[in-house]
């Protein structure tokens, strides 16, 4: 064997749009990446869905490509992907159905029957930490297949979440992991820390693979292969892992994108009815620990309203990218009450503002007020010393400055790192492939003062 080869871990990061493969070296620097996009296909109802066969072929094509590269030695492989997506496999490991889209309309009657049988919607949702989200509750998807297509369901050997299906392609083994089970699936009873009674009553447990820890690895299925294979992780939980490795003191991570999700890994208090109604839920860390989280559709709202401002003032949204906080504008805007509602800005007539800069400051001010309310839902009696913000808003000077002002007792940082989700999946199996210590500079931080 060529001793000059660079030892690497291969990570497949499968998003709804982009499917990426990264190779990280022992210092967690990206030394190779490949990206692919596939056209969606349709399920039997004509609804759009992931092209599962294209995804399967892409995994093998990508692996064959990196195995041919003489400069790398693949020591381990892991996977991370979006959740709420289930692959139904027969006894030969072949998919029996399309990969149904988690936005697919869900029959209300199936939900209602389940809720009614197990204590009502609120009690059921609290117990499972799963707001009623239709197909986004992936456990409901399995029940739907059983009820609507029993002729297919009888041939289901295992129902795997997408990250575990990807892992199966390379390891040949069937496993479940808690990051996928524990994310608004309606499968898990968070009070008893086991599958909910309905899952057992319906016999669903028969098609659920054994649960493994998120840091476990298995042998590869290919003859002669020496690499280890991880079980795969849900992407939101994976993105939290670099922070769990780097910081011991209690913190909250606000992960910003289309959704802005506030994660508090140090808050294990039970979910309340009020929190549930305000879009709080539990995620599970890769080690199976509860992570209280709150969600806000703020990135989507920002995109809509930024475009509305740009169109009104005849500019492009690019004008907003490097705007700095103008304290004079904020002081003026703060003289009028700000409605704490995510969509409040959408009702404001733009002709009241003197220019696009003033309108944009008002938009961010409204978003921050809503974000603060959302983040406070996951704060508890434990002293939080830091708030980290990653994703798009971490680079927005106005957003970050106003957020720091709203949390004067806490240090607020804009955080950035290369491919946090993929990096998390690599770090989760660190001990199984990497002989070096984990670097302490993986996350670049920018401190925002409260002033």
From TrEMBL:
The broad enzyme category this protein falls into is transferase
Q: Does the UniProt entry include the keyword Glycosyltransferase?
A: no
Enumerate the spans annotated as Carbohydrate kinase FGGY C-terminal domain.
249-430
Keyword annotations from UniProtKB, A to Z: Kinase, Transferase
**What are the GO MF terms of this UniProt record?**
kinase activity
Q: Which InterPro entries match?
A: ATPase_NBD, FGGY_C_2, FGGY_N
Q: Per its UniProt record, what Pfam families does this chain match?
A: FGGY_C_2, FGGY_N
User: Which parts of the sequence belong to the Carbohydrate kinase FGGY N-terminal domain?
Assistant: 9-221
Query: What does the similarity note say?
Result: Belongs to the FGGY kinase family.
Q: Which PANTHER family match?
A: GLYCEROL KINASE, SUGAR KINASE
Name recorded for this polypeptide = FGGY-family carbohydrate kinase
């Amino acid at each position: 064997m060529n001793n000059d080869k660079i030892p690497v871990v291969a990570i497949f990061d499968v998003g709804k749009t982009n499917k990426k493969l990264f190779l990280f070296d022992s210092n967690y620097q990206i030394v190779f990446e490949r990206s692919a996009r596939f056209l969606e296909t349709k399920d039997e109802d004509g609804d759009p869905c992931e092209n599962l066969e294209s995804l399967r072929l892409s995994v093998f094509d990508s692996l064959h490509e990196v195995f041919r590269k003489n400069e790398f030695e693949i020591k381990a492989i892991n996977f991370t992907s979006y959740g709420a997506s289930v692959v139904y496999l027969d006894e030969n490991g072949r998919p029996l159905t399309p990969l149904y889209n988690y936005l697919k309309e869900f029959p209300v009657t199936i939900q209602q029957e389940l809720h009614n049988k197990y204590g009502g919607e609120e009690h059921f949702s609290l117990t499972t930490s799963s707001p009623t989200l239709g197909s986004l509750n992936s456990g409901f998807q399995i029940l739907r297949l059983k009820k609507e297509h029993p002729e297919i369901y009888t041939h289901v050997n295992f129902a795997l979440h997408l990250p575990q299906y990807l892992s199966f392609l390379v390891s040949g083994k069937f496993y479940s992991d808690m990051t996928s089970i524990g994310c608004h699936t309606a499968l898990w009873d968070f009070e008893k820390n086991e599958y909910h009674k309905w899952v057992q009553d319906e016999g669903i447990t028969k098609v659920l693979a054994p649960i493994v820890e998120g840091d476990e690895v298995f042998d590869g299925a290919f003859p002669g292969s020496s690499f280890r294979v991880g079980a795969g992780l849900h992407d939101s939980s994976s993105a939290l892992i670099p922070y769990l490795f780097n910081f011991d003191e209690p913190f909250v991570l606000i992960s910003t994108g289309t959704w802005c999700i506030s994660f508090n890994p140090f808050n294990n208090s039970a979910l309340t009815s009020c929190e549930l109604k305000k879009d709080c839920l539990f995620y599970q860390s890769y080690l199976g620990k509860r992570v209280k989280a709150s969600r806000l559709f703020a990135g989507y709202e920002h995109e809509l309203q930024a475009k509305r401002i740009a169109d009104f003032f005849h500019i492009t949204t690019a004008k907003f990218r490097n705007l700095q906080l103008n304290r004079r504008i904020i002081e003026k805007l703060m003289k009028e009450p700000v409605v704490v509602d995510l969509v409040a800005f959408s009702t404001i007539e733009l002709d009241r503002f003197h220019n696009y800069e003033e309108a944009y400051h008002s938009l961010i001010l409204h978003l921050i007020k809503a974000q603060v309310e959302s983040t406070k839902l996951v704060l508890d009696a434990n002293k939080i010393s830091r708030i980290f913000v990653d994703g798009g808003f971490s680079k927005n000077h106005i957003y970050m400055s106003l957020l720091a002002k709203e949390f004067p007792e806490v240090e607020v940082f804009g955080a950035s790192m290369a491919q946090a989700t993929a990096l998390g999946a690599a770090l989760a199996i660190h001990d199984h492939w990497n002989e070096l210590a984990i670097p302490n500079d993986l996350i670049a931080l920018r401190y925002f003062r409260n002033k």
